[in-house]
Design brief:
The protein is of the alpha/beta class. It has two domains: about 5-45 and about 270-360, Aspartate Aminotransferase, domain 1 (Alpha-Beta Complex), CATH 3.90.1150.10; about 45-270, Aspartate Aminotransferase, domain 2 (3-Layer(aba) Sandwich). The chain contains twelve helices and twelve strands. The chain has helices spanning about 20-30, 45-55, 70-80, 90-105, 120-125, 145-150, 170-180, 240-250, 260-270, 270-295, 315-325, 345-360; strands at about 35, 85-90, 110-115, 130-135, 155-160, 190, 215-220, 235-240, 305-310, 325, 330, 340-345. α10 (about 270-295) packs parallel to α12 (about 345-360). The termini are far apart. The relative contact order is 0.17.
Length: about 350
């Protein structure tokens, strides 16, 4: 019999994002539902973004700029790099896939902390590579263990900082030590900094600042979190000109839609809204953390816009919260059974969550 499908697909289970928001609202009522499961921006997008989308919608029949030129130039000016060092993608997920497609050949290895963001492993395996998992040390990325797993076939190391779902960071000293230990001919070091805008720890390293001395570093960032554009899927990678050239060779044309590009540009221009989002998340993260700790809950210190909270009977508690109109993420689905991953909401949402947890016992 002719074999049609690749056998490796049998190893994958389609990503389960849960019921659509609209279906849940139909069940629970839109006024009751608060989604704290997807690490979304509690304030939503900037009004400037909404207006930019409205204006650009009349041009939806036209193909977008295939190179996201204006957005790359704006990002370059903001980050202090050239536009040639940036590629924009349909979310950071696409960029992870582009890295795997561009770099990996059958049998190549990629070191990935485990557990971590699922698309790392999926993209590596689909490209014919092999994942060398590096277990977390509790909730922390163990860079000593990561280094021991780098070998002759290692093409890349992927680090998520702040980590999803643990919310912890890779610190400057250990990261610089890892880079030094990898030597003059290192593999790619991919720093996924999707949640970097919510970090307030001064020991957090800026991945972009590492590029002049470490050209095989690749930094991934996104407009989904701080800018509130999760529904438009706009992410970007910053790297050496050689790295970005290789990614562009495997990138689909017109990969970022016209509305997404216009929205991302408008988001960059509204620094006040970005600052307000950061301020609200940091204030509410501290509030929610204090109140959860006062109730006896434990969790690693978060540098992201969510908490990974240890909860007895997590699935049961999560189901009770859903019945109360609060959607959270069961940690078992992201590698941490016995936990709930809870996004930081606004004060009303966080107080409602605390009340529901109290009622759940």
């Amino acid at each position: 019999m002719r074999r049609i499908w690749r056998p490796i697909l049998d190893q994958f289970t389609p990503y389960d994002a849960g019921k659509p928001l609209e279906a849940l609202e139909a069940e629970l009522g839109p006024s009751r539902l608060v989604r704290l499961s997807a690490n979304e921006n509690p304030l939503g997008p900037s009004p400037r973004v909404v207006e930019a989308i409205r204006r650009e919608a009349t041009r939806a029949h036209l193909y977008p700029d295939g190179g996201s030129t204006a957005l790359r130039e704006a990002l370059g000016a903001r980050l202090g790099v050239s536009a040639e060092q940036i590629v924009v993608g349909n979310g950071a997920d696409e960029l992870i896939g582009l890295l795997a497609t561009a770099a990996l050949e059958p049998g190549d290895e990629v070191v990935v902390p485990a557990p971590s963001f699922e698309p790392y492993t999926t993209s590596v395996l689909l490209a014919g590579g092999r994942v060398r998992p590096s277990p977390l040390a509790g909730y922390e990325t163990d860079l000593d263990d990561v280094r021991r797993r780098v070998g002759a076939r290692t093409k890349a190391v992927i680090l998520c900082s702040p980590h999803n779902p643990a919310a912890t960071i890779v610190r400057r000293g250990p990261l610089l030590a890892l880079l030094a230990a990898l030597g003059d001919d290192p593999p790619l070091l991919v720093l996924d900094e999707a949640y970097c805008d919510f970090v307030d720890d001064p020991d957090y390293p800026d991945g972009v600042a590492l590029l002049p001395r470490h050209p095989r570093v690749v930094v991934l960032r996104t407009f989904s979190k701080i800018a509130g554009l999760a529904g438009l899927r706009v992410g970007y990678a910053v790297g050496s000109p050689e790295t970005i050239d290789r990614l562009n060779r495997v990138r689909e044309p017109y990969n970022v839609n016209r509305l997404g590009q216009a929205a991302a540009l408008a988001a960059l221009e509204d620094g006040e809204h970005l600052a307000r989002t950061r301020r609200v998340v940091l204030e509410e993260r501290a509030f929610l953390g204090r109140e959860l700790a006062r109730r006896g809950h434990t969790f690693p210190p978060s540098q992201a816009n969510f908490l990974l909270v240890r909860v007895a009977s997590a699935a049961e508690v999560g189901a009770r919260l859903l019945r109360a109109g609060l959607l959270v993420r069961d940690g078992a689905a992201v590698g941490f059974p016995g936990h709930l991953r809870i996004s930081i909401g606004d004060r009303a949402a966080n107080e409602r969550l605390l009340g529901a947890l109290d009622a759940a016992g």
